[in-house]
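Standup notes
- HV: blocked on the assembly model, inputs below
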Amino acid sequence: MNSNTPSSSAGGPGSADATAPRRNSKRPKYSRFTQQELPACKPILTPKWVISTFLLVSFIFIPIGIVSLFASRDVVEIVHGYETECIPLNSRNDKVGFIQSDQDKTCIRTLTVPKDMSQPIYVYYQLDNFYQNHRRYVRSRSDQQLRSPGNARETGSCSPEDTTVSGTPIVPCGLIAWSLFNDTYHFTSNNGGQIPINKRGISWQSDRERKFGRNVYPSNFQNGTLIGGARLNESIPLSEQEDLIVWMRTAALPTFRKLYGKIEVNLRQGDVINVTLQNNYNTYSFNGRKKLVLSTTSWLGGKNDFVGIAYLTVGGLCFFLAIVFVLIYLIKPRQLGDPSYLSWNRNPGGH
Amino acid sequence: MSSAKPLLSQSEHLSAPCPHPHHRQSSLSITSLGGLCHTASVSSSVTDETQDNNLYDLKEESEEDFDPVVGAVRPAFRPARKQFLSAELQPQCPPRVRKRLVSWGGVMDPWHNVKALEISGASTRASSSLVHESLNKSQRPRRSERFLQISMQLEDNIAHHDNPRLIHINDPKKTNDKFDFSGNEIRTSKYTFLNFLPKNLFIQFHRVAYLYFLAIAALNQLPPLAVFGRTVSLFPLLFVLTVTAVKDGYEDWRRHRSDRNENNRESLVLQPDEFSLKRWKKIQAGEVVKINSDETMPCDMVLLGTSDPSGIAYIQTMNLDGESNLKTRYARQETNKLVLEGTRISGVIKCEQPNRNIYEFTANMELNGHRFPLSQSNIILRGCQLKNTEWAIGVVVYAGQDTKAMLNSAMSSSKRSRLETYMNRETLWLSVFLLIMCLIVATGMGLWLKRHETQLDTLPFYRKLYFGQGKEGKKYKYYGIPMETFFSFLSSIIVFQIMIPISLYITMELVRLGQSYFMIGDMHMYDSNTNSRFQCRSLNINEDLGQIRYVFSDKTGTLTENKMEFRKASIWGKNYDNTLPMAGSLGDTNVEVEDLMFGRRKWKLKSEITPDFELMKLMHKDLYGEERIAARDFFLALAACNTVIPILTGCPSSGTDHTLDDIPISINYQGESPDEQALVAAASAYGYTLFERTSGHIVIDANGEKLRLDVLGLHEFDSVRKRMSVIIRFPDDTVKVLVKGADTSMFSILKDNPDDHIRNATLCHLNEYSSEGLRTLVVASRDLTGEQLVEWQNMYEDASTSLTDRSAKLRQTAALIECNLTLLGATAIEDKLQEGVPEAIESLRQAGIKVWVLTGDKQETAISIGLSCRLLTADMHQIIINGNSDEECRKLLYDAKAKYSVNFDSCEENAEIDYLEVPSKTKSSNLPERAVKEDGPTFGPLALIIDGSSLVYILEKDLESEACIISNFVLVLFDLATSCKVVLCCRVAPLQKAGIVDMIKGRTDDMTLAIGDGANDVSMIQMADVGVGLSGQEGRQAVMASDFAMGQFRFLKRLLLVHGHWNYQRIGYLVLYNFYRNAVFVLMLFWYILCTAFSTTSALTDLSSVFYSVLYTSVPTIVVGILDKDLSHKTLLKYPKLYAAGHRQESYNMSLFWITMADMLWQSLVLFYVPLFTYKESTIDIWSMGSLWTIAVVILVNIHLAMDIKRWVFITHCAIWGSIIVTYGCMVVIDSIPVFPNYGTIYHLMKSPTYWLTILLITVIGLLPRFIFKVFHHIFWPSDIQIAREAEVLRKRRRFFGSKKDRVLI
């Protein structure tokens, strides 16, 4: 058991090979590769390794968890659902009918700031039950068309919102653009002052610069019998239609937020904000809900305790496991590589 | 009939039209046999030419002769023959069958008296072919097709007489004019440059796997189903097609190369008037070819003439049937004369269509208006070598693909590995999962549509209708709820396609290719003697090598070197040990010895043996003591009592005695039995050189003195008497009987000598010899008085001419003189075991592999070899079953069973201690008798020794009695055999070997491996799960049929214990990992699809989905599958028991599969839900999410793999980390193309810390259970491999870091 010859002796055959330079010998050439003797690291699960792995994980995870949790706690978030509230009481039985009618859909809501919020404060709209990730929907766009004016006719993938009745292409075509969100929000503080919303820079820079053409202008958009959502100003190129750009980054999940704009003033705790909103977007036909979200941000993103809690849990669990294994190794040690544990030594009486 | 044309008599009886005249013929021939053997008066008239005649008669005779052996086969065999007649032949053909038997004998060296062994071999072969034929008819469903195929090889020689092949000698144009005979170009390759692409594609699409890809790709082309982009969906198919095509192309290129070498060899061909070199591929049927000595035949030829006036040519058929002894072939006298005169021959040969039976050839030749038959003895086959004949001229009858050699070298049919079979079972499970998942998606889709039916028209993310372009109200890709549901089902199949790990098949092939590369390159499996590397001929069953439970080994040439050497002699009670070199005293004694060896210098033998000095001295003493005479008689007996033929080369022996010492004449002893050759060579070394043998006398050079001895009679060796004797008359008119035989049969017929010390001493020596594994023979002699001689001669003549019971009578005759013998001594011959064989067998047995030796040798030899290679040990209890009849066999078998069945338990236990046996279900169910446990005497481990004819009864019985299970012989045999530690089967015919393998294969789940070197092992090699051919002494036939080929038996140890183990571990892990890897990905997609209104959206980009299994994660699996090793070869060789891991199916089994699947489920949930919770109610877009998932799953599976890697080499690091980097690279590239909607995603993501935190979280949470499980398993249930690994690694570390530093924490 203990007298295994060292592996360095494996070089032996190689030298023998060198001494016999027969031309047509089929003797395999010696190399550490062909003989599968390359220097190798052979990790085994020694108690030291196991315990230090668990400790390492817990030492990394617990601080990260704490930091994340704090970061998430620092985020102040105001979430306000308005899909029902912004329907006049008499229309609440027929929300779809109301939203499709030409009535004034202005609606004023008030929000109270629970904590100090320092700028930038992000304004999101959140939709529920809207499957932006539906296969029919996701594919219904034409990126060629969005990029350059020459590709306006590339509407093959845009059905059923590809061309107008006369056959001229819709720019931007497809269901995604067609269903562009069209609620609008205006914020005023309680003292009557406007809280400006910056709608610049809410989309990805790369999208603005490369994906949406600087000289592609909307045309024939929302001209059909069925209006899906917002109209676009035909004099502004697509690369500056940031709402569209944001909208067209389709969301991964049926509940999603999209950036509406940024408020670049600090808000104090207890401030009351009046929101004047146009409740235009029809989510009622599919029981979708709409929410207005004002949120500060941290290095981690929005308010989400999950990461912090998960890290803390895993870190704690690993720490616990480290202790368990220390105990196990202390209570029931097994000498590693002890041949007496080999199955044929362990139960000589057969199975 | 024959009297009309005396010249043709040699083969006349062969073509005799009916059996009756034939019998007359054979009775006639007996007289001439007498002439050959003993009656000097008759033999004087025997000329060389009639010798041929005798040979065949001898066959006839000997066939009748050995009734005890063959006779028992007969009853079964006769009806068999009838069956043949009725079934296969037209009514007018009976003689053909007869002849077929004869020619079988004729294949064996026809010069000599054919031994019982071969005849019984031939007839058992025939009868076993009958067995399988009847099997064929009864259509037993259990038998494998393969086996039938093998037996068919013997069947399809029934020629198609209606359509003969016409060969115009020396007129290839005319020959090939009418018929389109194939040229001599051989082609084993499948493709040419031009047809490679179409043909390869055609062949590839025969695989179901590729059709699956094709179907998926086709599905994706349908508009409602287009999940992926059209071109992207073709990518997997293209990938596998390309990889396979490259692999096939490479293999075929190698075949092309070897074909080219073969085709470009050259031979002398008559064109048009002189012999000039011509490439083999240009040779055509009808051409006349001249072969010089030691050259190889380019095609099948009918001999026209040879350098020998009698038209004899010696050939070595090693490449064809693996037999290394020379065989004689004859040119017809008619043509030989013409050839020697130098006349141009032109005639027509009418022969049968090409067939693959190398033991038969029927044709006739029309020459100058005469017609005469040609037979097996007139044809030389491609691949044979001409030996001892200066040249031979023949006409090509079969060329190229038509040659028997080529017809026999059928492609080794592809085998499928055991693990792959299991894998398919699990693949079925995966298909079930796939189906369930698709059904869920489809049902969900249906329900969702139903629920939103009213909203579908306007639902922004669905929009069933067009509103515009004049197609108002027209539906957009909507076919109603049922159809949508169905389409959803199909498209989910497309999305989940990699759940069925089709690419695994390709991965496995690549991995096996890599494994083969390392096996081939293993320096420890290189045989420098034959300069041969290990060869992998089959790429499908590498991992089977790790699970072998039974090894069936041929003996001669496989375990042994097939080189007999005279080792020791016991003469007159004194032991002379040849093995010791002349001890130290190299001074004056050396000169003396050289003097003593004066006589010997004249003769140069192929294999020199150093004579024992003591014995040499004794031989040259002049004193006439008893001992001296005994020694003389001893060596005379060795030189005379045999059937060896000396072939003199060097100086022509026609001249007078050579006076010059410096011209040694080299003698080549050609003999049936290598033992006899060794004995004759030994006699020569001690001064008794046999250098001439004719039918009536032999001439021996006894220390320079020429001794002519008349051979009065010869009683051949047979298996009943187990001895042979010659009666010779010395020049001084004394007559002696010289007998040699097996000790068991000899001691009973010795003279009752009161002075028994010689006998005792010899016995003692014999025991000593056989315990050393030497093959022993006892030599004795007796003087015959005049009356005894006359009495014997009368009886002998009577017996040998008798028509009935001849063999019994001959035996009686022999008994008359084989009595009252004087013991001279004993010989010990070593059939040298190959290097390392005992160690290899020992290791294999420790590894829990049962080694069965199947040999054509006789029982005694088999046992002695068994002893010497440590297969049999002294403490083993031998069960010998060698019945001569059905009943006897049955009795022996049941006796043995009754006797030892009480012992089965202890035996099993025994085996378990030794072999870590896993109780196998089959075994216990087949051994109901085991329950009967008594307190009987305990025996040691059992060894079963069974002979071929008994096997015939047993195997045949099984087939006959298939309706009822009255005598479930095979079952009993199987029980007995599996409960024995060792099984030795002696005197088995090739098909029986296959039958035995089949018996085990059919009744257990255990893996079998057959190893052999000769053509007689081919059927066995093909039958076994793994066939290994030895490319040693005997030809390439076995290699051609094998899956693996190597130089020496001892490599088997390394092949199984090291490479088999590695391969098994690697492939087992590879398969599980691949299942996991694909499933985790698919399941991740599945969870997401549940969040997308069942719309089979994939968050991943098309390219990433496709690349996942072919690019992102494929390389590490392949690298790990090729390079990972759990244990070093040293450890594996040191602890053969580690091999049992393969027997226990440790690295691949059902429970491992389910554990892996459970792990997979957890990991997929983690993969999906961690990002889901992290990015709940956030602005995350679908491509960012997809990007996150892509990278997370790639990292996860790679780290999962990394956790299981046992040995990290540089390449592994490259592969694992490299593939993560490559994935990132690919994603960066994909996200840098502005045309894709996902443009810029990765850049955006990488800036976000959440992204990184999520990946880390996924990896850790995903792998935590697995890691914990591993650690727990490691602590509480360590496997053998783990422990050995720890021992190996820790020991090495300690060496490096000193003793204390890396002390294990306890």
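- HV (later): unblocked. Chain B has a mean pLDDT of 74. The radius of gyration of chain B is 37 Å.
- Next: hand off to the docking folks.
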